Structure formats: structure tokens, C-alpha cells
Automatic annotation (TrEMBL):
<comment type="similarity">
    <text>Belongs to the isocitrate and isopropylmalate dehydrogenases family.</text>
</comment>
<comment type="function">
    <text>Has multiple catalytic activities. Apart from catalyzing the oxidation of (+)-tartrate to oxaloglycolate, also converts meso-tartrate to D-glycerate and catalyzes the oxidative decarboxylation of D-malate to pyruvate.</text>
</comment>
<dbReference type="GO" id="GO:0000287">
    <property type="term" value="F:magnesium ion binding"/>
</dbReference>
<dbReference type="Pfam" id="PF00180">
    <property type="entry name" value="Iso_dh"/>
</dbReference>
<dbReference type="InterPro" id="IPR019818">
    <property type="entry name" value="IsoCit/isopropylmalate_DH_CS"/>
</dbReference>
<protein>
    <recommendedName>
        <fullName>D-malate dehydrogenase [decarboxylating]</fullName>
        <ecNumber>1.1.1.83</ecNumber>
        <ecNumber>1.1.1.93</ecNumber>
        <ecNumber>4.1.1.73</ecNumber>
    </recommendedName>
</protein>
<dbReference type="InterPro" id="IPR011829">
    <property type="entry name" value="TTC_DH"/>
</dbReference>
<feature type="domain" description="Isopropylmalate dehydrogenase-like">
    <location>
        <begin position="5"/>
        <end position="342"/>
    </location>
</feature>
<keyword id="KW-0520">NAD</keyword>
<dbReference type="GO" id="GO:0009027">
    <property type="term" value="F:tartrate dehydrogenase activity"/>
</dbReference>
<keyword id="KW-0560">Oxidoreductase</keyword>
<dbReference type="GO" id="GO:0050319">
    <property type="term" value="F:tartrate decarboxylase activity"/>
</dbReference>
<keyword id="KW-0464">Manganese</keyword>
<dbReference type="GO" id="GO:0046553">
    <property type="term" value="F:D-malate dehydrogenase (decarboxylating) (NAD+) activity"/>
</dbReference>
<keyword id="KW-0479">Metal-binding</keyword>
<comment type="pathway">
    <text>Carbohydrate acid metabolism; tartrate degradation; 2-hydroxy-3-oxosuccinate from L-tartrate: step 1/1.</text>
</comment>
<comment type="pathway">
    <text>Carbohydrate acid metabolism; tartrate degradation; D-glycerate from L-tartrate: step 1/1.</text>
</comment>
């Protein structure tokens, strides 16, 4: 029997609930499909930080390297640990160290989910650059606390980093409906974003079958609301992609539905799967987090592992569940009720 080694990092807040939900569904799908997921849970989180002074041990990255994939919940508990410490101590270093440069975030409405827009038939795949750009962590502050204080945050865009993500976007567009929206702010940012536009243009010559359009991020944000069905694949820098994908989550009914995959396309290190949302301190501990985003992210993990049939079975079970109305109204059904319904749908499919 095939066995996949999965590192589970539930993290903080609702990350714990939704990861447990995803794990219950995924292990069920695995046994039905005849393979095994061997999980090992790591307690790395803000709680771990408070106990040890570290978000993960010194050799955390090396420990994770031995796994086939990582399933993560959410990181961050800002009331006790500053986000700049927790995220730069756990989530962001994993994305970077494992060269998970393509963050794939789908936006479409699941059956039975009422989005806030009139449009229903959209199907967007956002590809977010995940290792550099505005998240480079380069910068500093001088004259801290003084009237003349200056803070600098430098975005770093490399040719290698920009080329590979835009190429990834073209490949995804080629495999879908052949349309790529490349996102910049090159009217205001005259170095990095002009660089990005030039690379998009140069690569377009290699993909004559893909219709590529460059948009400014502000205009693209409006388009996602006004005409989402006109979009197919979006490729954006780290920060723009972050913001656009919370917007993408909103148009598909909320953060509780939005999945994401941090992919290392070369497979030189494990990829990581996590919902788009965070630890949701406002609802944590109440058992009402929507686990759909985490379960969908888990389906993306199965797909990445080469278990396409099991991935499709999980997606079908999710859709059959939302089609009945379960999990579609925020706060109405508990995490456990939604998870049990997905597992029931999965079991019914087997029979
Ligand atoms: P958030 O995504 O945690 O929450 C935003 C809003 O969406 C909240 O009202 C929350 O209740 C709601 N929400 C989110 N997920 C939901 C779900 N599954 N079901 C129902 N409602 C849901 O964003 P935030 O409040 O800005 O961040 C909270 C913490 O999480 C911060 O520390 C932040 O840095 C961190 N964060 C982590 C990740 C990650 O680990 N990938 C992602 C985003 C935010
Ligand atoms: C996400 C999150 C993270 C990001 C934060 C928590 C650093 O918002 O995964 O979308 O900006 O990448
Ligand atoms: Mn985000």
C-alpha cells in the first residue's frame, strides 16, 4: 500500500479545528482509494513560541524536508505574539526555504453557496508569487520613535523569480481557458512593476495560444467584482496576490471556502497546503469555523501527491454537501456538523 508522510501544523486559533476536520476527511478518502496518509503533528504555533521562544525549532525546516507534503492550519495570535514575529518565524520561512514559489488559489462558487455578486459562473485561478517581492523582509527603521523617523520596506524582484511565476501562469492558462491576466502597478511603481510587465511581454511570444492582458491591480480588483466571469488565470506579485485572493475569497462566499496550495513546482522540497484564511481570533474556540477551505486545500494536496481520483472524490463530497445547504450560511452549522456531512457524502460515493 502506498504511504504518504504528511506533516501537520495546525497552528493557532481555528487553524486547529479546520486542520483536524481536513485530516478526518482526507484519511477517509485515502482508505477508500487504497493508500495511506501517515501524519505527524507538530505543535509549532504562538503557544509553542510562548513556551520556547521560537515558532519552530532550529532544525524545523530540515525536519519538514523529509515529508511528502505539509498540511497547515493558520499561524498568528496577535494578542500575545506580534504577527511580524509569528509569521516570519514559521509560515513565511517555510514558503521560502522550500521554494514554494507558486501559491495557487482558486475562486469559484461551490453549489448552494450564495456569493455577494450577481455573477455566478466565474472560475478564476489566482497564481500568487510566494517567495519574494514585497515580502522580502528587507528594510529597516532609523530614528525610531523620533519625529524624523523613517521606515523603509524594500521589495525585491529577481529575474529568476518573476520569470518562473509568470511562466507558471502561462502554463496554467494554457491548460485552462487560455487567458492570462498579469497584474502590476507599473503606472506608479516604475522599477519592479515595469520589470514585471517587460517579462510578461517577452514570455508572451512563447505562448501564442494564450491571450495575455496586463492590468493595474486597482483596475483588476474592480474587474473581479464587476466582471469576474471575464477572468481565467491571474498572476500577481506576493502582496497584490495576497490582497486579491481575500477579495477572491469574498466573491466565492467568504474566507471559509477559499483554498490554497503553496507549490514547489520542481518538487525539490515538499509543498504546503493551507486555507487562505487566518486563525480568526474573533471566532476561535467556538466550534463554528467553516472547514471547507481547509478540506478543499487538502483535496489540492491529494492532487499534488498524484492521487487525482481521491482528490476528485473529496471535491465531489464537498460539493454534494454544500448543494444541500450544509455549511453555506456563515455561523449556522458547526465545524463538526459540516465535517461529518462531508464524510457522509464521501462514504455514500463509495457505496
Ligand atoms: P482571518 O482570516 O483570520 O479572519 C478574517 C475574518 O474572516 C474574521 O472575521 C474571521 O472570523 C473570518 N473567518 C476566517 N476564516 C473563517 C472560517 N474558516 N470560517 C468562518 N469565518 C472565518 O484574518 P485576520 O483576522 O486578519 O488574521 C488573524 C490572524 O491570522 C493574524 O495573526 C494573521 O496574521 C493570521 N493569518 C494567518 C494566515 C495563515 O496562517 N496562512 C492567513 C491570514 C491571517
Ligand atoms: C496568507 C496570509 C499570509 C500572507 C500572512 C499571514 C503573512 O495572509 O497566506 O494569505 O500574507 O501570505
Ligand atoms: Mn492573506
Amino acid at each position: 500500500m502506498k504511504v504518504y508522510k504528511i506533516a501537520q501544523i495546525p497552528g493557532d486559533g481555528i487553524g486547529r479545528d479546520v486542520t483536524a476536520a481536513a485530516w478526518a476527511v482526507l484519511t477517509k478518502a485515502a482508505s477508500a482509494a487504497g493508500f495511506r496518509l501517515e501524519g505527524r503533528e507538530f505543535p509549532w504555533s504562538c503557544k509553542f513560541y510562548k513556551e520556547t521562544g521560537m515558532m519552530m525549532p532550529e532544525d524545523g525546516i530540515e525536519t519538514l524536508r523529509g515529508f511528502d507534503a505539509i498540511l497547515l492550519g493558520a499561524v498568528g495570535w496577535p494578542a500575545e505574539v506580534p504577527d511580524s514575529v509569528s509569521l516570519h518565524g514559521l509560515l513565511l520561512p517555510i514558503r521560502k526555504a522550500f521554494v514554494q514559489y507558486a501559491n495557487i488559489r482558486p475562486h469559484r462558487l461551490l453549489p448552494g453557496v450564495l456569493g455577494p455578486l450577481k455573477a455566478e459562473g466565474f472560475d478564476i485561478l489566482c497564481i500568487r508569487e510566494n517567495t519574494e517581492g514585497e515580502y522580502s523582509g528587507a528594510g529597516g527603521r532609523v530614528h525610531q520613535g523620533m519625529d524624523n523617523e523613517v521606515a523603509v520596506e524594500t521589495s525585491i524582484f529577481t529575474r529568476e523569480g518573476v520569470e518562473r511565476i509568470i511562466r507558471f501562469g502561462f502554463e496554467q492558462a494554457r491548460a485552462r481557458r487560455g487567458k492570462l491576466a498579469s497584474v502590476t502597478k507599473s503606472n506608479a511603481q516604475k522599477y519592479s512593476m515595469v520589470f514585471w510587465d517587460e517579462i510578461t511581454k517577452a514570455l508572451a511570444a512563447e505562448y501564442p495560444d494564450v491571450e495575455v492582458t496586463s492590468y493595474h491591480v486597482d483596475a483588476l480588483a474592480a474587474r473581479m467584482v464587476m466582471a469576474p466571469e471575464s477572468l481565467d488565470v491571474i498572476v500577481a506579485s506576493n502582496l497584490f496576490g495576497d490582497i486579491l485572493t481575500d477579495l477572491g475569497a469574498a466573491i466565492q462566499g467568504g474566507l471559509g471556502f477559499a483554498a490554497s496550495a503553496n507549490i514547489n513546482p520542481d518538487r525539490s522540497a515538499p509543498s504546503m497546503f493551507e486555507p487562505v484564511h487566518g486563525s480568526a481570533p474573533d471566532i476561535a474556540g467556538r466550534g463554528i469555523a467553516n472547514p471547507m477551505a481547509a478540506i478543499r486545500s487538502g483535496a489540492m494536496m491529494l492532487e499534488h501527491l498524484g492521487e487525482a481520483e481521491a482528490a476528485a472524490a473529496v471535491m465531489t463530497a464537498i460539493e454534494r454537501t454544500t448543494a444541500t445547504g450544509i455549511g453555506t450560511v456563515p455561523g449556522k452549522d458547526s465545524t463538526d456538523v459540516i465535517t461529518a456531512a462531508v464524510i457522509k457524502a464521501l462514504t455514500a460515493q463509495e457505496g
